[in-house]
Specification:
The protein is α+β, with helices and mostly antiparallel strands. The protein contains two helices and nine strands. Strands 1, 2, 3, 4, 5, 6, 7, 8 and 9 form a nine-stranded mixed beta sheet that branches. A hairpin with a 4-residue loop joins strand 1 and strand 2. Helix 1 runs antiparallel to helix 2. The longest helix is centred in the last third of the chain and has 24 residues. The chain starts with a strand and ends with a helix.
């Protein structure tokens, strides 16, 4: 057990990044959670949201995820994201416009229809991108 976490962040296409971190914050299916060095081993599904990694060097790495899985074992954190976008590459204005559009789509859709389920997914992903941008701007 050490005083840092080794983070590996994967998407279906590639290893997005690795980092030595002091903290990881992620959107679990039961709510947002944090992982610090010496954390117990566990696994969680991820919901759409932002993942924040505070590096040992004091930097923040932020990504918007569509969902996925996170595992903690012996000061190692592995993120297997269904899809992800680094906050640094997200256009803030476009993300906010996409959120507004997703909210309009949901308001127009009828519960129980496929368009409603698609609008919920679109809204969750748009909120994740806006959350990642907001964290980046802090």
């Amino acid at each position: 057990m050490g005083d840092s976490l080794r983070v590996q962040f994967f998407t279906p296409d590639a290893l997005l990044f690795t980092a030595d971190a002091s903290e990881v914050v992620a959107p679990g299916s039961m709510g947002e959670f944090g992982v610090l060095p010496n954390h117990i081993n566990f696994a969680s599904t991820l919901e759409a949201g932002r993942v924040l990694v505070r590096t040992q060097a004091g930097e923040k790495i932020v990504a918007a995820v569509r969902g996925g899985f996170l595992e903690v074992t012996d000061d190692s954190v592995t993120v297997l994201a269904d899809g992800a976008q680094m906050a640094a590459s997200i256009d803030a204005e476009q993300a906010r416009e996409d959120l507004a559009a997703a909210e309009r789509s949901l308001a127009e859709a009828q519960p129980g229809e496929q368009s409603y389920r698609e609008a919920l997914i679109q809204l969750a992903e748009a909120k994740a991108r806006v959350a990642a941008v907001s964290e980046r701007e802090r």
